[in-house]
Amino acid sequence: xxxxxxxxxxxxxxxxxxxxxxxxxxxxxxxxxxxxxxxxxxxxxxxxxxxxxxxxxxxxxxxxxxxxxxxxxxxxxxxxxxxxxxxxxxxxxxxxxxxxxxxxxxxxxxxxxxxxxxxxxxxxxxxxxxxxxxxxxxxxxxxxxxxxxxxxxxxxxxxxxxxxxxxxxxxxxxxxxxxxxxxxxxxxxxxxxxxxxxxxxxxxxxxxxx
Length: 210
Prior knowledge:
Shape: globular
Radius of gyration: 18 Å
Number of strands: 5
CATH class of the largest domain: Alpha Beta
CATH superfamily of the largest domain: Resolvase, N-terminal catalytic domain
Structural class: alpha/beta
Strand content: 5-15%
Oligomer: single chain
Largest sheet: 5 strands, mixed
Distance between the termini: 42 Å
CATH architecture of the largest domain: 3-Layer(aba) Sandwich
Helix content: 40-55%
Number of helices: 8
Number of domains: 2
């Protein structure tokens, strides 16, 4: 049965190769990569994306769908939970690269199903909450830039947009700060600052145009 990696690359700063390399480094043998470029995970559902739609047509019982994290499927709670449960009902196994989570329909025990569904809901909710926080920070940064008041921008961030997104993804999944720092190539203190105040971290990127 094929193992298919689905990737969503929403901005120019994000990289498809990174998602593929990360999956293979985690031990996944990928048979096919399906990717959507330049699409929002908030406003565009998985089924509305050109390649996302292919997943619904292509995946069959026994196939494995690999994603770096659930936010690649989307950042809308209802869309993500509906999509995952649809694939599970079809007999598809869903696995995440980050933390190696597995979701499938192998159990018939109602308690285990409840735990599985609760975890899916939690991760989908976290993905949407993170997206909304970043959106608010971006809005604040744009408004500040429009004012053009010439105020001191503060210290330039030691991370770029792609690194910030990577750090936030791992923080959402519960990965430790030291591990994230190694993966992202930044200091542990940088990861902790972003964890403590992701909104201001995002604003700093906006101020510097990163």
